[in-house]
Write a structure and sequence with these properties.
Order of helices and strands: EHHEHEEEHEEHEHEEHEHHHHE
Radius of gyration: 19 Å
Distance between the termini: 27 Å
Structural class: alpha/beta
Largest sheet: 7 strands, mixed
CATH topology of the largest domain: D-Maltodextrin-Binding Protein, domain 2
CATH architecture of the largest domain: 3-Layer(aba) Sandwich
Strand content: 15-25%
Length: 304
């Protein structure tokens, strides 16, 4: 029987390589599905998915606002702005307001995109300077719009932003992924951690990335793909050392402790699934963006 060929887009980030490890290692039963992987930066993934170039793709959560008619969100393959969560450090008032309860005691460490500059700028001053951003449908861009409103920006590849700030080509830059671990080495300053800001506002981790699947595949195939990718992630967790070694080359510019920090920051419980807390965070992210007139009304659909 001929296999279904499924085209997957993923980014050169360690968590993406980690979650597909079980598939690429050939140890997960993919049934009648054969995956073709395409490696691109997140802005290209956002753009190409909007043009229906992928059956499955990792995208910015923000991008889903423009994909919701044609794609659903897989319940796994999640990138949230936190490593773990602890009941004690989420206020009872916040949880009650959200209608949530946490069942496990875990350690918390929130994080997100960083707004950096050589010279300190107050929040009011940010509206009068030029800020480099990694794309206009990235989650980092939407979050910064929520914080400061309209601002002058310049779209750049995410790995060029830090140098642009350092060389005074722009006044400030919004950095993501591994670059948030490097800015101090270049005598740059962090104006604000967007993940911490979001957490302070909502008591929730900031939604960063998600994995989407085309509705054109039909519900059965969508569920099958979700199950295969989740099995791949579970295999990676059960073989963590090998999976991390597999993921390391995708960040060749990082070395030593920087690699370990990147791995600890993004390869965590969220890859396995949102749970009620993660889903609530995504819904609130879309609600706040819509209420500010920044995105269309968005009702995320999750494939379980």
């Amino acid at each position: 029987m001929a296999k279904k060929r499924i085209k997957i887009g993923f980014s050169p980030d360690s968590e993406d390589a980690f979650m597909f490890y079980g598939i690429t290692a050939g140890v997960v039963d993919c049934g009648d599905i054969e995956f073709d992987f395409v490696l691109r930066d997140i802005q290209t993934l956002n753009d190409w998915t909007a043009r229906d170039k992928f059956d499955v793709s990792v995208v910015s959560v923000h991008a889903y606002a423009y994909l919701q008619d044609r794609y659903s969100i897989l319940s796994c393959g999640v990138n949230m702005g936190a490593t773990e969560l602890v009941r004690d450090q989420l206020s009872a008032q916040s949880l009650e307001k959200l209608g949530l309860e946490l069942s496990a005691d875990q350690e918390i460490d929130v994080h997100g995109p960083l707004l950096i500059s050589k010279k300190y700028h107050s929040l009011d001053q940010l509206k009068n300077i030029t800020i480099a951003v990694p794309g206009t449908i990235t989650s980092s861009y939407l979050a910064l719009q929520m914080l400061i409103g309209e601002f002058d920006y310049l779209v750049m590849m995410y790995n060029e932003i830090m140098d642009a700030v350092r060389l005074n080509k722009v006044d400030a830059g919004l950095i993501i992924h591994d670059k948030r671990l490097e800015y101090k080495n270049h005598e740059l300053n962090c104006i604000i951690d967007m993940g911490q800001w979001w957490f302070d506002q909502t008591g929730l981790p900031m939604p960063l990335g998600c994995t989407v699947v085309s509705k054109a595949l039909g519900p059965d195939t969508m569920k099958q793909i979700n199950s295969i990718i989740k099995s791949s992630i579970e295999y990676a967790y059960n073989n963590r050392l090998k999976a991390i070694e597999h993921a390391r080359p995708f960040k060749t510019e990082l070395r030593g402790k920087s690699v370990d920090s990147m791995v600890n920051m993004y390869i965590n419980q969220w890859l396995l699934g949102y749970g009620p807390l993660g889903q609530k965070a995504i819904e609130l992210f879309f609600d706040m963006g819509h209420k500010r007139g920044l995105i269309p009304q968005t009702k995320p659909e999750f494939v379980e």
